């Protein structure tokens, strides 16, 4: 039986976002698993990806679980729902305490740094002064990187998976195309919780193409009936995945989350990207996926070159970018090897898996 707590923290102070806009009545949804030990040195903090939630045991099972590498018997595992996401943290469909109406498209601009500011507020509330392992993939990796730069002394080990130092023009183009799909749904401007649902369905369908790729679709969605003229498996799959997200998410959160991802640039106001990465003090493992064409390995190799003494590892999988959620056996071995080395204070050389 796991020691789990799903809670909400209400912050009484007003926060100032990177844009200069203010946010009042901040609420943070989060999960914790296990207990903080007496030395307060067993914290594993997870930063989640775009449409995930704070229940890391659910969406990263195999890496996080009772019998997995990161388990609640040994560790105090924390995962917070990110700012703008609809799973417990303040987001565009939340009620604005100043107007008593939903924010919707009046929600303030949010960046990755704002998400990290919210994580840091929660860490203070939980009494977390030091993080043994800070880990994230994709958007989660962007958050973890920002945190390690903004508070370098507080992170012991940093694990960055399928992520980048600055969101690429390629990634921004994918996100903008999805926002264009959402904006063609006129209900998006109705400022209702279900506004833009048809556009969100189309956006999710587009996103999946960047998460997987040719090999995965050929392996899982190929029709073997040579006489077929319609109702293809791949088409049904796109519809199903789009509808699945609509049932659990909202178009406004998706819109703002994609904008936040576009904003990611660790070099902003820090004299450049390389200078910013050079301030990271955590022992760092960077993991790339050779089949990932949304966050290609050149981006992770760049991180490993410019983060002091970083270790680089990569692997191949037909699941492309989504592999960081699926290939947990590979991740377990790679991360366990790294932590054994780093926690023993040994020098770890660059490696390729």
TrEMBL record:
Homodimer. Residues 43-322 form the AB hydrolase-1 domain. Transfers an acetyl group from acetyl-CoA to L-homoserine, forming acetyl-L-homoserine. The keyword Methyltransferase does not apply. Belongs to the AB hydrolase superfamily. MetX family. This is Homoserine O-acetyltransferase. The lineage of its organism: Bacteria, Pseudomonadati, Bacteroidota, Sphingobacteriia, Sphingobacteriales. It is found in: Cytoplasm. The keyword Amino-acid biosynthesis applies. Keywords: Acyltransferase, Amino-acid biosynthesis, Cytoplasm, Methionine biosynthesis, Transferase. Its EC number is 2.3.1.31.
């Amino acid at each position: 039986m796991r020691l789990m707590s799903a809670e909400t923290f209400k912050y009484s102070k007003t926060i100032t976002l990177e844009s200069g806009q203010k946010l009042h009545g901040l609420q943070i949804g989060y999960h914790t698993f296990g207990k903080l030990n007496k030395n307060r040195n067993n914290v594993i903090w997870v930063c989640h990806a775009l449409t995930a939630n704070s229940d890391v045991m659910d969406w990263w099972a195999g890496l996080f679980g009772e019998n997995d590498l990161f388990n609640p018997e040994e560790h105090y595992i924390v995962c917070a729902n990110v700012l703008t996401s609809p799973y417990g943290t303040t987001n565009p469909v939340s009620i604005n305490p100043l107007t008593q109406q939903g924010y919707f498209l009046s929600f303030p601009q949010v960046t990755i740094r704002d998400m990290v500011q919210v994580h840091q507020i929660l860490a203070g509330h939980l009494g977390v002064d030091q993080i043994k392992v800070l880990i994230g993939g994709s958007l989660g990796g962007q958050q973890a990187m920002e945190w390690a730069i903004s508070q370098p002394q507080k992170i012991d080990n940093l694990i960055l998976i399928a992520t980048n130092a600055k969101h690429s023009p390629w990634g921004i183009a994918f996100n903008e195309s999805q926002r264009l799909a959402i904006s063609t749904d006129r209900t998006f401007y109705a400022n209702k919780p279900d506004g833009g649902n048809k556009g969100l369905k189309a956006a999710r369908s587009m996103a999946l193409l960047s998460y997987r790729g040719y090999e995965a679709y050929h392996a899982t969605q190929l029709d073997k009936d040579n006489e077929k003229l319609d109702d293809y498996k791949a088409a049904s799959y796109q519809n199903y995945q789009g509808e699945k997200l609509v049932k659990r998410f909202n178009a406004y959160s998706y819109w703002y989350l994609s904008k936040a991802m576009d904003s990611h640039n660790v070099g902003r106001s820090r004299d450049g990207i390389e200078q910013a990465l050079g301030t990271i003090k955590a022992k760092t493992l960077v993991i790339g996926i050779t089949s990932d064409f949304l966050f290609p390995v050149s981006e992770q190799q760049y991180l490993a070159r410019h983060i002091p003494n970083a270790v680089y590892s990569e692997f191949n999988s037909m699941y492309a970018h989504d592999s960081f959620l699926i290939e947990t056996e590979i991740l377990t071995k790679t991360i366990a090897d790294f932590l054994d080395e780093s926690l023993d204070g040994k020098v770890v050389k660059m490696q390729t898996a």
